[in-house]
Write a structure and sequence with these properties.
Layout (H helix, E strand, L loop, with lengths): L7 H5 L3 H6 L5 H15 L6 E5 L5 H8 L3 E6 L2 H7 L7 E5 L11 E6 L10 H13 L1 E12 L1 H6 L4 E6 L2 E10 L2 E9 L5 E9 L3 H10 L3 E6 L14 E7 L1
Parallel strand pairs: 1-2, 1-4, 2-3, 4-5
Antiparallel strand pairs: 5-11, 6-7, 7-8, 8-9, 10-11
Helix pairs in contact: 3-4
Organism: Hymenobacter swuensis DY53
Keywords: Methyltransferase, Transferase
GO molecular function: methyltransferase activity
């Protein structure tokens, strides 16, 4: 089992069981969101976009299909190896830790989508990651950070559930601990051995995000509350989608 201090994402995201557990994610819904977001942001033809924490590249591929130059980066070598099958002259993928300066860009837009932030053990690392991303933006460029509505997520936390995917029973236990929303995942592998992993995302409030943004030199333009881009309502919105300007 991973220790609490371990960087859980560096192991879990490269595990085949991670991709098995989440294989039924609604990519049609994600593409609908990206389509609305592009309409909302109205990038100019040929604009350059960074997909920060791009995973296996499906969303970066969709963005490139809309005519933009797209670079996708992710810490998971396995995910980037998969994503590179989609690469072409206007779509590139790189293994990269967002805590390190980005040698790519500059970009008109930086997108960090589907709660791909707040994983780090030390809070200062979140600010470092934001500063690195902001440094790749062109003057006047925009960044979008899509995060869960933390207060609602904690309020509606499902403590335990079991998901059966391809004959694997995943037991999921969720709780709030030391400023993190934690999901413990246990299952038996093909050899009948118990495997345990964790997912941990820092329970960041809007106010704390705004503090980060100030430290990263980013100006908050608006906050949207869901994938249909309605205004953010702290009591009812499932998401906090921040649109920022450099």
């Amino acid at each position: 089992m991973l220790s609490v201090a371990a960087e859980w994402f560096s192991t879990w995201f490269d595990s085949p069981y991670y991709h098995r557990l989440y294989q039924n994610r609604d990519y049609a819904e994600a593409r609908d969101f990206l389509s609305r977001l592009l309409t909302h942001l109205h990038p100019k033809p040929g604009a350059t976009l960074l997909d920060l924490a791009c995973g296996k590249g499906r969303h970066a591929l969709y963005l490139s299909e809309q005519g933009y130059g797209v670079t996708g980066v992710d810490l998971s070598a396995q995910s980037i190896a998969y994503a590179r099958q989609f690469a072409h002259a206007q779509l590139h993928f790189h293994v990269h830790d967002m805590r390190e300066p980005l040698p790519y860009g500059p970009f008109d837009f930086v997108l960090n989508l589907f709660t791909s932030f707040g994983y780090f053990e030390h809070e200062a690392e979140n600010v470092v990651a934001l500063r690195n991303a902001a440094a790749t933006l062109k003057p006047g460029g925009k960044m979008v950070i899509d995060f869960l509505n933390t207060e609602q997520s904690i309020r509606e936390l499902v403590a335990h559930e079991t998901k059966i995917v391809d004959n694997t029973s995943f037991h999921l236990y969720r709780h709030f601990h030391n400023d993190f929303i934690v999901k413990e995942i246990s299952f038996l592998d093909e050899q009948g051995l118990e495997q345990r992993f964790e997912e941990r995302v820092r329970a960041l409030s809007r106010e704390r995000f705004e503090e980060y943004f100030r430290m990263a030199g980013l100006r908050l333009a608006e906050v949207l509350g869901d994938y249909h881009l309605h205004p953010f309502d702290p009591a009812t919105s499932p998401r906090m989608i921040f649109v920022l300007k450099k």
